[in-house]
Amino acid sequence: MLKIMKIALAAVLILLVITTFNIIYFGESSKPEKSDCIIVLGCQVYGKTPSPFLVWRTEHALKLYRDGYGKYIIVSGGKGPGEEISEAEAMRRYLLSKGVDDGKILVEDMSGSTMANLINSQAVMREKRLETAIIVSNKYHLKRASLMAKQQGIKSSFSGVFVKPYKRHEFIGYVREVPALVKYYIIKGYSKFF
């Protein structure tokens, strides 16, 4: 019995190591490709003020937009607890303050999860006849987002941020992402992790 428990523990540890490697490798190796639009996944808003993670994501999308990687920016995220405006609206206001034409900002403000972000953003893409997207989030989040985008049939590349002034929060994000990705693999029945 003890031997079986040791084998099971070893298997779990190997699974966690592989998953962690996948998360880190995908986040670091992802490169954006010129696309029809840039989707920014939502993150917390403090009242009406975007959190540092949301600012960095939005700023990164803005840089990609200005560098010609996308014709539109889809800001994606609903209104959560403690938020006076939706995450999408916070991003829209931020982009407007940076001089982006309002007509180039597409708002998806109904979602409350990553999967909903992608499903609802895809609906916006279809409405505007946009076929390809760059998905922007924190690096630790990109692997799971890529699996969800693939599941929805979104033709996408990925580009992530690492918020250096908040390294502790980033580390917590990586730690939380490991069980979230394992759960996703289990639910979707993935037999391989690469």
How would you characterize the overall build of this protein?
The chain has 194 residues and is an alpha/beta fold. It has one domain: HUPs (Rossmann fold), CATH 3.40.50. The protein has 6 helices and 7 strands; from the N terminus they run αβββαβαβαβαβα. A 5-stranded parallel beta sheet has the order 5-4-1-6-7, with helices on both faces. The chain has a two-stranded antiparallel ribbon with strand order 2-3. Strand 2 and strand 3 form a beta hairpin. Helix 1 packs across helix 6 (167-188) and helix 2 (52-66) crosses helix 3. The model has no long low-confidence stretch (mean pLDDT 93).
Summarize this entry quickly:
The protein is α/β, with parallel strands linked by helices.
Number of helices: 6
What top-tier CATH class fits best?
Alpha Beta
- Strand tally is 7
- If you consult CATH, what is the topology? Rossmann fold
Low-confidence parts lasting 5 or more residues at pLDDT below 50? none
Q: Between the first and last Cα atoms, what is the distance in angstroms?
A: 32 Å
**In percent, how helical is the residue content?**
40-55%
CATH architectural label = 3-Layer(aba) Sandwich
User: What is the assigned CATH homologous superfamily?
Assistant: HUPs
Largest sheet: 5 strands, parallel
Overall geometry comes to globular
The number of distinct structural domains comes to 1
Protein name: YdcF family protein
InterPro entries: Cell_Envelope_Assoc, DUF218, Rossmann-like_a/b/a_fold
Domain DUF218: 36-158
Organism: Clostridium tanneri
